[in-house]
Amino acid sequence: MKEIKNCLKDLIVFQNLDPEELEMLCENSYAKLYEKDEVIFFENDSVKKLYFLVKGKVKLSMLSAAGKEKVLTILQEGDIFGELSLFDEDPHPLTAEVMSDARLLIIPWNEMERMIIERPSLAIKIIEALSKKTRLLTSQVRELVFQDAAGRLASLLSRLADDFGREIELGTVIDLVLTHQEIANLIGSSRVTVTKLINRFIDEGMIIIKKRKIIIKDFESLGERLQTLL
User: Where does the Cyclic nucleotide-binding domain lie (predicted)?
Assistant: First the structure.
């Protein structure tokens, strides 16, 4: 009973699920802790599980044939992932790696399938949660097609501010430490280009950097970068 109560407390981040659905998830899942830089699953793994991110941050990425990493998105508390390998026999198309110590609730597919059959409304709510990721990926495709590197960086910073932003005296700090290479992987550019753009954004007064975290000072000017087309 204590484990169920702790699980329900964890799942409070999933606000669109009702108490009965939360309890059902708790009864059929197990919790697991992951440390920073630990891999949850690799691209081409065939494990069929659904993951609920209760605490921490996880990045989803893929590798090119030449071994170059492309980061698709960074997940935060309340996100669901692992769904891409659930509904067919294909392996995971992405690698999931922990960026900060994380706590996950994990549901094997056979348990998830049984719950969906018993309570179809649960499937609808999970699909609603997953649609956020689909919209994000669609937005990234649009950025790659229609925006230059400066526009893609501005879009990324705006998105990270929405997901991980915290208001402080100097502006909105993105509560996430990313290297220039990680940012480059997220926007489909080179590390050198990202370094130059960040320095330009700093010179133009749009952002500052304190303790390795980016602080957005001028959202209006940042927004103007989004209009820069190829």
Answer: 13-133
